[in-house]
Design goal:
Largest sheet: none
Oligomer: single chain
Shape: elongated
Helix content: 55-70%
Strand content: under 5%
Length: 121
């Protein structure tokens, strides 16, 4: 009898996981996900503007409201109507502009996510 144990039959390699590449040349993920990486900051892969959008919105809305109230209080009945229009439509327009900016940042985040899933990061 042969003293060596029987060898298992050759089996194919398991298929890659859904979030891992089929090849080994993909770049390695960062050591700690979500950690600040200075090279990403320098290469504009990490964006700081979305964090400021809320502050910018509040400051702009305050200025628009102050301007509308100053207009309403200074020019009689025509100024009141103009101030009311600026108060409503000015703040609405300001909100629409900043929501558009946020949509652009969210599109960027979605594309980065798709890219990472494709590369297995």
């Amino acid at each position: 009898m042969d003293p060596t144990p029987p060898q298992p039959p050759d089996q194919p390699a398991p298929p890659p996981q859904p979030n891992q590449p089929a090849v080994n040349w993909a770049p390695q993920p960062p050591a700690t996900p979500g950690a600040f990486n200075f090279s990403d900051f320098i290469n504009f892969r990490y964006l700081i503007t979305p964090g400021f959008i809320t502050v910018i919105y509040v400051i702009g809305a305050i200025f628009i409201t102050i301007g509308a109230l100053a207009s309403a209080g200074s020019s009689g009945s025509g100024g009141v109507l103009a101030g009311l229009i600026v108060l409503i439509f000015g703040n609405l327009w300001w909100r629409i502009i900043l929501e558009f900016v946020m949509v652009l940042f969210r599109i960027n985040d979605s594309l980065v996510s798709i890219d990472r899933r494709g590369r297995g990061l």
